[in-house]
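Tip: read the tokens left to right.
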């Protein structure tokens, strides 16, 4: 009971019949039968209650109300003559003695119907997010988010982790994306940065003597939106352990995460420990992806030697990958659409042929394969009815293109995809370095703070592109939930690792002064990981868009259309922080 109400709109039951009650909520709708009979639906956070209008005087009050006005109803509970068994309060109704307006809706027309808000244009939903969130279906995702976060906190605490918050205003750090910069008023020309992750702080905590740290950490990255990535800010279950190895991190995550998926997820089955572990190079070779969807049982085969000299131009001098899919009965139109989607996603073409019921190779590039028919059937293990998808290019290109084709084939063929479950795996043994696609120079493949496998000796004696790191990704249903690593806690090894990408000891000291100096005072071996909370909840809810599970998300263009951000600020604000706006030249 509160000052405004004795019960909420999801609370009253048949046992409350005869009680005088006060309920509050939003005037959702009215079904008007006559001038003195109507049925009002009152909705609050907890549910809905039917209010019966039975007098002309009370109908006159209701007639003045626009939908979504907040009202207080004082009246008597009685048993409904026509019960609604699908509604928690469906056995009762409230006959009002008095209706008070608490918050008037001043608009006759709403931007969209509340209960159909998910059908509205996304920007319209985001502009009027406060109305969108009144939709019980939309609200339920935010409620579930709160429950999941609470469960994660509880489980981490039970494992002996201490929740510690780290700074939001910090220094710029190379984490792989653009920083959000904040000008420092008292330090002209200098800037804070919003943290892309609490990476350095959590490692410094380990050097400070804390044993197990976690937080539900806000992270800020100026990057483009995707269906599974929100622009601007996101949250992660950030954790770090001192005196810990890769195995220790795996043990914690495998105990914390799957039960949460199984308890709250749209699928009630999740992988149990230990998760499948797949080395990065094997994942690329077998699945064409470093985040494979293990619900799909299709695997890639190498057809380079088999088809390199078949006379088909795109195969000449390239790696060729094949995916054999039995049970795929797509029409030519469906196959063309699938190949077009591969090309749209990867900017690379996919090719195909089929072995028909008579054992003849038909369709797609069949004419280039005819002369090798028997060898192709034998090497690829084909049976009548099998569909063969093909990709070509340099090794990584052929693999990645085949990975997209594999995913599309799996989604199109029920025989090869076990949909209603959560399949987890670890991708391990990532390369320490790679050649950057844009720079053409040697770069860190993943986290620059990872420990190279083999330590100093490996750094000094091996080809950098052959070096592996103690880095790992947590993947579920083809979505990367997190990256983690055993950290490089030795300053000498750290300096040697950065030398490979053209940064010397002075550069390391300048870029990471606090962490470098902390490690020089004796740091413990430590390891950690940071599963994405938003992405995790998206998967648990079975949503395709991450914006559905964020209370106030930005749109695809990184704009908050409800608050009108980003926005122009006045000149005094710019002067205070020593900023001048330079017009962009056309």
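Filled-in amino acids:
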């Amino acid at each position: 009971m509160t000052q405004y109400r004795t019960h909420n709109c999801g609370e009253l039951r048949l046992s409350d019949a005869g009680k005088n009650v006060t309920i509050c909520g939003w005037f959702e709708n009215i079904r008007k039968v006559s001038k003195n009979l109507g049925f009002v639906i009152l909705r609050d956070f907890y549910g809905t209650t039917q209010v019966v209008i039975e007098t002309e005087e009370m109908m006159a009050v209701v007639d003045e109300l626009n939908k979504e006005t907040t009202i207080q109803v004082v009246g008597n509970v009685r048993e409904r003559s026509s019960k609604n068994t699908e509604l928690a309060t469906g056995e009762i109704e409230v006959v009002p003695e008095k209706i008070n307006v608490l918050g008037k809706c001043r608009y006759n027309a709403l931007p969209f119907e509340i209960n159909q808000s998910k059908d509205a244009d996304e920007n319209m939903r985001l502009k009027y997010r406060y109305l969108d969130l009144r939709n019980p279906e939309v609200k339920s995702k935010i409620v579930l988010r709160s429950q999941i976060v609470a469960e994660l906190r509880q489980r981490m605490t039970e494992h002996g982790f201490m929740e510690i918050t780290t700074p939001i205003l910090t220094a710029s750090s190379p984490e792989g994306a653009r920083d959000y910069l904040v000008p420092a008023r008292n330090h002209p020309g200098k800037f804070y940065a919003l943290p892309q992750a609490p990476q350095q702080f959590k490692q410094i905590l380990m050097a400070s003597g804390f044993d197990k740290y976690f937080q539900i950490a806000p992270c800020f990255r100026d990057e483009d939106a995707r269906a599974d990535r929100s622009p601007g800010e996101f949250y992660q279950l950030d954790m770090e352990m001192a005196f810990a190895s890769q195995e220790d991190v795996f043990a914690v995550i495998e105990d914390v995460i799957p039960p949460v998926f199984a308890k709250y997820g749209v699928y009630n089955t999740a992988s149990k420990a230990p998760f499948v572990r797949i080395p990065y190079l094997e994942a690329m070779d077998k699945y064409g992806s470093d985040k494979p969807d293990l619900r799909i049982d299709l695997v890639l085969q190498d057809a380079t030697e088999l088809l390199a000299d078949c006379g088909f131009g795109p195969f000449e001098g390239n790696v060729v990958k094949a995916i054999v899919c039995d049970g795929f009965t797509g029409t030519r139109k469906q196959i063309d659409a699938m190949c077009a989607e591969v090309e749209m996603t990867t900017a690379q073409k996919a090719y195909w042929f089929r072995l028909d019921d008579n054992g003849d190779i038909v369709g797609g590039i069949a004419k280039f394969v005819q002369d090798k028919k028997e060898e192709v059937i034998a090497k690829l293990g084909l049976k009548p009815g099998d569909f063969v998808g093909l990709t070509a290019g340099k090794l990584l290109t052929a693999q990645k293109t085949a990975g997209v084709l594999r995913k599309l084939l799996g989604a199109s063929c029920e025989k090869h995809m076990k949909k209603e479950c959560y399949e987890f795996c670890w991708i391990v043994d990532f390369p320490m370095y790679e050649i950057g696609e844009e720079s053409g120079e040697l770069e860190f493949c993943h986290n620059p703070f990872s420990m190279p496998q083999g330590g100093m000796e490996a750094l000094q004696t091996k080809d950098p592109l052959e070096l592996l790191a103690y880095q790992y990704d947590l993947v579920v249903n083809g979505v990367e939930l997190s990256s983690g690593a055993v950290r490089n806690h030795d300053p000498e090894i750290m300096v040697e690792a950065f030398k490979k990408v053209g940064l010397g000891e002075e550069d390391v000291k300048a870029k990471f002064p606090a962490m470098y100096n902390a490690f020089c005072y004796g740091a413990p071996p430590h390891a950690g990981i940071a599963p994405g909370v938003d992405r995790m909840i998206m998967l648990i809810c079975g949503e395709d868009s991450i914006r559905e599970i964020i209370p106030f998300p930005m749109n695809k263009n990184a704009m908050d259309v409800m608050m009108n951000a980003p926005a122009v600020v006045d000149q005094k604000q710019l002067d205070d922080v020593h900023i001048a706006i330079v017009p962009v030249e056309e």
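The radius of gyration is 30 Å. Residues 136-158 form the longest helix (23 residues).
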